[in-house]
Amino acid sequence: MAVEPIPFRRSPRPTLGVEWEVALVDPVTRDLAPKAEEVIDIVQRDNPEVHLEKEFLQNTVELVTGVHDTVPQAVAELAHDLNVVRDAAEQLGLKVWASGSHPFSDWRKNPVSAKMSYAEIINRTRYWGSQMLIWGIHVHVGISHEDRVWPIINALMTKYPHLLALTASSPGWDGIDTGYASNRTMLYQQLPTAGLPYQFTTWAEWESYMHDQGISGVINHTGSMHFDIRPAPKWGTVEVRVSDSTSNLRELAAVVALTHCLVVHYDRMIDRGEELPILQPWHVAENKWRAARYGMDALVITSRATDERWVTQELTDLVDELAPLAEELGCLHELSLIPEILERGAGYQRQRRIHEKTGSWLGVIDATCAEMEEMVPRD
Fold first, then answer.
1. Which of 31-35, 56-60, 69-73, 81-85 has the lowest average pLDDT?
2. Does the keyword Nucleotide-binding apply (predicted)?
3. pTM to 2 decimal places
């Protein structure tokens, strides 16, 4: 049987789009509130220009930017949209909140959105699929040709722990401290179509793989593959889905800038005829686990020879290495926020400090709600 081609909508420029999953919480109980549809209806009535999507859970609103050329443009749109969503939530007596996962909400009491594909996921995955009280950031970067997609994805996988450590913000789950920086990462990979992508080398290999998934019925069940980094042929982009959802725009801006710079950096390496970095699949998997477990304290594998460095050292050097490119792309300020995160601590570290001091997750929710309102990208 012939393999059906997957058209890739080539992007002449490294354009940028961002999807940010945020949730609604009750300011009294601090529990999740399944009111996303009502919030979206208010926004569509009063601000129809704002692009919001319903997500897997009825407590979740996804903010979706248009196509932009720079990180500041995308973040400015998100800032506007967040204000609109916050105003709508306040009309319902709710607050907007974001992290990789909620530290104590009961997944059994959080209804799924009324969408057939979501119901099918639950029907197929049962216990594991029902637990997905998790939120992330998806960054799309335009790619000029499909032949570049998988070499760039494979190179990005060498920086998986860097992107995750910066944003890890899900230490709590079901009322306990899991000991992980990103419990979201561990939860999400339980879904049969999620997790690390295979290291395809050509677009034809990806087409053949997706052909097999169609024959086996996987695509019929899920609609798509939910890899941590994947092609988005409809948009002509690589979609990076590694990061936990940040509790503020400032840290979101930093990780979006890093993602944009890395994709363009690897694309330019192809232009220069240089070999892109790649790690053995077992090293990529180990790095993912180390970042999920240890976050900013992760010792990560940096070469095929199994050299190792602290992820904080790696991030510091990355900022210096990518600074000229970031200036060219108009996101030097945002990339330069990374040392600030290293000094302040990632989201999971701030949450854990509050929980260890108070013995309660309620203050954690209050603090992350406050960050949503106070930590704006620019001084």
1. 56-60
2. yes
3. 0.96
